[in-house]
């Protein structure tokens, strides 16, 4: 009887132990829409897809705000990955370009300090209120720019929904003139036009093309544009990517197919290297094109290739992502001459991961770095930027010309190189000022199709 009772008690203890283990080790469920519910999902997605997933050791504090929690999962070197909620605008990356439609840099000139308008998007709040490349900002929200405050003012500008600016124009002929006050309200700016022209210099026809962004569906635009440039028999090409922060890989592939001489559809264009889950993926020119561009064929793009064997690319600190991909991945197939300043340094790509557990409600979207990028010769690792072949600071002089003007510093540098003119650009008379904050005008994610 004792043995029987002992056996029953032992079995009961064993059963209770099993129940206890099951309740401890089983999946934990969280209340929907709670921080824990969102962050647990974030953690699992990052452990699967993130390039540096092995560096994520544990879940950490799931009670944190999701935006802050996501940051705890990132490698210190990763400044590109981000998370946003489509119904919470404050979670999206903030920049002057996506809020107001312009880019700015800062200079010292004749003992005073200015913000220089460098790039203005078409049909943006900035453009619609009269902002132009080359104007100087003297005051922001009533505060005069000075050495001790320009950096903080820039950071404050990126966080505002309204800007009150005082501006003044400058030319070598007139000096300072036309002071104006402008009030900008945050607004939307949509796809930007690609501009191009033909420059004739000493019987040489040079195509100049400015591409502001790499959008899905641009292959048809490239086709039409380069058919026209080919029809007028250009023999040199200047590609302006200094304010192109990136975009879609298939769009960049479409342009590369047109530019590179003597390539075949099966030639290797790009190498993706991911974690142990994603592995490595190689894509030919044709495969990269078809990943997101369906309206134009490889052969049609090749037929619009002009008679060029090299390309001059104007670049700078806002040249990033897909623009850097163009520079790096064309090098195995043609001469690439970069002119300007060091590029931003974004050598990773990924795809958006949406929380679609509740189809009736939009959830968080992750944009993690998933792949490192390399060209056909396995050249890459430009996370600190690509150094230009010819270094030129576009802010050499206080007069800043419109893009495409032959007197504009970087374009003039390209034309001089093409013509063999060794005359140097005029000595700098302005001092460029650094910014401590990392620009968020760059596309945080170079997009690929999963």
Mean pLDDT: 91
Total beta-strand segments? 20
CATH homologous superfamily label of the domain at 195-428: 2-enoyl-CoA Hydratase, Chain A, domain 1
Helix content, binned percent = 25-40%
Tell me about the biggest sheet? 7 strands, antiparallel
Shape: globular
Head-to-tail CA distance between termini: 66 Å
Low-confidence stretches: 1-23
CATH arch. level architecture of the domain at 195-428: Alpha-Beta Complex
Given helix and strand content, the structural type is: alpha+beta
CATH class of the domain at 195-428: Alpha Beta
What does this protein look like?
The protein is of the alpha+beta class and 450 residues long. The protein has a domain at 195-428: 2-enoyl-CoA Hydratase, Chain A, domain 1 (Alpha-Beta Complex), CATH 3.90.226. It has twelve helices and 20 strands. The strands form four sheets. Strands 2, 3, 4, 5, 6, 7 and 20 form a seven-stranded antiparallel beta sheet that branches. A six-stranded mixed beta sheet has the order 8-9-10-13-14-19, covered by helices on one side. Helix 7 packs parallel to helix 8 and helix 8 packs parallel to helix 11. The N and C termini lie far apart (66 Å). Residues 1-23 have low confidence and may be disordered. Residues 177-393 form the Tail specific protease domain. InterPro entries: ClpP/crotonase-like_dom_sf (IPR029045), PDZ_sf (IPR036034), Pept_S41_N (IPR041613), Tail-specific_protease (IPR005151). It holds the Pfam family Pept_S41_N.
């Amino acid at each position: 009887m004792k043995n029987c009772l002992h056996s029953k008690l032992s079995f009961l203890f064993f059963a209770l132990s099993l129940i206890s283990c099951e309740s401890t080790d089983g999946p934990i469920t969280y209340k929907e829409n709670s921080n824990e519910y969102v962050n647990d999902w974030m953690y699992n997605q990052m452990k699967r897809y993130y390039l540096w997933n092995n560096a994520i050791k544990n879940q950490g504090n799931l009670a944190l705000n999701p935006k802050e929690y996501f940051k705890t999962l990132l490698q210190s070197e990763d400044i590109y990955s981000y998370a946003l909620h489509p119904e919470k605008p404050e979670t999206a990356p903030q920049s002057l370009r996506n809020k107001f439609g312009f880019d700015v840099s800062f200079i010292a000139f004749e003992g005073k300090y200015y913000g220089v308008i460098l790039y203005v998007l078409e049909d943006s709040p900035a453009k619609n209120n009269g902002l132009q490349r080359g104007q100087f900002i003297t005051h922001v929200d009533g505060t005069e720019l000075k050495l001790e405050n320009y950096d903080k003012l820039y950071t404050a500008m990126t966080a505002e929904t309204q800007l009150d600016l005082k501006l003044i124009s400058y030319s070598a002929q007139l000096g300072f003139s036309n002071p104006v006050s402008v009030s900008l309200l945050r607004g939307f700016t949509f796809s930007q036009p690609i501009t191009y022209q033909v420059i004739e210099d000493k019987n040489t026809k040079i195509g100049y093309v400015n591409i502001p962004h790499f959008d899905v569906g641009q292959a048809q635009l490239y086709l039409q544009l380069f058919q026209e440039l080919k029809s007028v028999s250009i023999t040199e090409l200047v590609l302006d990517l200094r304010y192109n922060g990136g975009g879609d890989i298939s769009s960049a592939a479409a342009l590369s197919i047109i530019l590179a001489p003597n390539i075949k559809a099966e030639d290797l264009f790009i190498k993706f290297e991911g974690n142990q889950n994603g592995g490595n993926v190689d894509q030919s020119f044709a495969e990269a094109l078809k990943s997101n561009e369906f309206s134009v064929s490889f052969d049609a793009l090749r037929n619009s290739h002009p008679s060029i064997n090299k390309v001059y690319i104007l670049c700078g600190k806002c040249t990033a992502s897909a623009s850097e991909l163009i520079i790096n991945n064309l090098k195995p197939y043609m001469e690439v001459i970069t002119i300007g300043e060091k590029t931003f340094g974004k050598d990773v790509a990924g795809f958006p991961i949406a929380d679609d557990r509740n189809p009736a409600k939009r959830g968080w979207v992750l944009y993690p770095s998933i792949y490192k990028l390399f060209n056909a010769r396995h050249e890459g690792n430009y996370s600190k930027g690509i150094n230009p072949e010819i270094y030129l600071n576009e802010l050499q002089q206080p007069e800043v010309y419109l893009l495409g003007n032959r007197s504009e510093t970087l374009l003039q540098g390209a034309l001089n190189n093409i013509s063999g003119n060794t005359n140097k650009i005029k000595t700098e008379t302005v001092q460029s000022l650094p910014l401590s904050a990392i620009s968020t005008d760059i596309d945080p994610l170079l997009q690929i199709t999963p």
